[in-house]
Request: fold
Amino acid sequence: MLMCTYKLANLLLCIFLTALENAIVELDHSEHVRKVISLKRSRAGHLSEISKIYKQLDSFLLDYEFFRKVQILDEKLKSQWMKYSSINDQLQLLIPEDSEKDYVMQHSNNYRHYVTMIKEYICEAEKYFKELRESDL
Reply:
């Protein structure tokens, strides 16, 4: 009788420990999911700000009159991109790389495109302003 009680107690303890382990795994998984969702929302917010900067640049890159505004937007874009990149790096540690590869690549290409356009604009604007100063002399 004592042996049956002991076996029953061991069986109940095994069932309890298994249930406890499953609950812990479930908590870890739900915390992981919450972290991923939070980071994705934050990343989306930064991409929204980056898109707004792109739209402003589309207007301002058309005329050298907006030279100072382009310089300011260039700094804002770099700052937002650094924040986006930091969050994206955190996300890459939590989710498989391949699942987001195209998404990240698309935004990286957009960013490089605008950085190149800004550099070209600033270079050409500086030449333009130099020629204006020289013609005034």
Observations:
- The mean pLDDT is 83.
- The longest helix spans residues 2-60.
- Helices lie at 2-60, 67-94, 101-136.
